[in-house]
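Q: Two folds, back to back.
A: First:
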Amino acid sequence: MKNKFVFQRSLFIGLMLVMSGLLIFGNTPDLPPLKKLCCLNKLFLGDGNSVLREAREMSLEYVFPPANLYLAKEHELPSKKLQSRQEAEITLTCVYDNYQVNPALQTDWGFACVIQTSRGKLLFDTGGNSNILLSNMEKMGIRPGSITLVFISHVHGDHLGGLKGFLKKNNQVTVFISDTFPESVREMIKSRGAKYVEIANSKKIVDSIYSTGVLYGPPSEQSLIIETEKGLVIVTGCAHPGIGRIVKKAQQLLGRKVYLVVGGFHHPPREVVEEFRKLGVKKVAPSHCTGDEVREAFRREYGQDFIEFGVGRIIQIKNN
């Protein structure tokens, strides 16, 4: 009896291996090769009446996640390094800042930047005044309706204040907000007819663009990471959790060198310049709340790799 059971078990396992191989390596009408796997949901092997209760097909990506995406929980990234897979050519256009590059545009305390890839446009933060935001966008030839995603770094008014007015012009967007935001922000977004996604942990936004996840400041804040062929581009709102900490977080998540850090650095000590060098940051574009003294320290140290950033600045990063 025992020998019979061992034979049954061996035969069953062998058959399942063959079936799995056919499903994995064979072409299927609805999924490309290497995309299907026979998943045993309930399997009982105990006696001569062993039965397969349920087998169902599931995409391989839920077993072996795509190289650029971790699907453990709502597309969260793992805490360990991810290897680079998808890289984008990007254009960053500053549409709101208290520093000015284009004198035809209006300055104001706050920050907003439009990020364009081949997959569309994302608005990073909205400044503090929607009239100024929309006016600057119009002068730079950026239609509100061309934006499909909005990413809000943190709850302060000089980054969130323009959102309500922007949604009046375009509510066909998904807004990525921190899970620490007050309920009033969620209600405002819903009342304007837009959708929102709450961010807690590191998360893929779209191909090649990720959130660091919410880091404690105070206030809590998320930053954006973009994979390019030249390396990582990190966009920060105010960097309340610490700009060095944000850079290290991005390196930890994606395991790549940092090509550019742009945005507000939140008045860090001058030693941050040396820290950036040690972290291997190639180029810097500090603005908004960084402070004049630290900006000048970066300018002296980085020379041609220092980018004067402010409203009206356009940065293009192309693949080699």
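A: Second:
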Amino acid sequence: MKDTDKAPGAGRILGIGVGIGDPEDITLKAARLIKSSDILICPKKDLGRCRAYQIAKQVIPEVGDIETLSLEFEMVKDEKERDRNHREIYRTVKELVNNGKTVTFLTIGDPSVYSTYSYIAELAREDGIETLAVSGISSITAVANSLGITLCEKDVQLHVIPDTDDIESALFHQGTKVIMKCGRDMRRIKEILRKRSGISVYAVSDCGMPQERCYRGIDELPEEGSYMLTVIVKEMEPMDHFYAEAKMDLAGYDGKNVIIRDIYGETFTGIAEYGGRDFLECEYGGDEDGIFIEDVLLYNSQIGSIEESAADGEKHDRKNL
């Protein structure tokens, strides 16, 4: 819905993105509409710990004079329980709107990206209540800019991963992966990322805040991080002289000592364990066969060359793409 003044006596629901930490990222439009709000909805009763409220207050002192209503937004995975929570919040907000109030959800990042406001707005529209979302800077782009890297170029796809439950299969999507709010599961994520070849890993914790910290490479990642930690996984560019569409016959290397160089220029040595296409598709979501070297899985298309290595270090039976 367009940003217009509300009709006399009519209430409405706003979802306003305040960015992820730096108060200077709040737009002029967001500031104007926050000032005109009757009630601000905050996810925490302790406003000192409410990140969105504190971001807005730094550049909009008037928020201190606006009535606030604290509604706990429980992050639950059970769909039925989550729906009950949203409907309970909506009933409270609906009563205020029916009394002519402009009710504003202050949203970390952008209200269109995994926000409680989006669920409430959907229920409100079903009842014919006016809603308006105002864009804010999302962690997806803010983190990349803090790192000084690009998310997408040419035909590279972008995949946003909101939780870590199915992280292993999600990482097999082609393109750049952004793992959001994953600081509490960093130990497991690091173990999973170490099994992948041909990737560059970056992360930022508390982006836009005074305590912001950037990480480059798996080894730099903390074992535990803040809740507001975002990881970016980018695929390396294949080396031109290795890249080809041909598939290699890998089954014959099962159980043998091998040296593998992948298409990104990395080298792996050890006992090869062959993984057939059906097995890898079932277990990892892949669509081709591959070789395990210890905990690292190399798909057929990722292998630039493979050669058998005798126990004494002698090399033979070399194959190249």
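Q: And?
A: DSSP finds eight helices and 16 strands in the chain.
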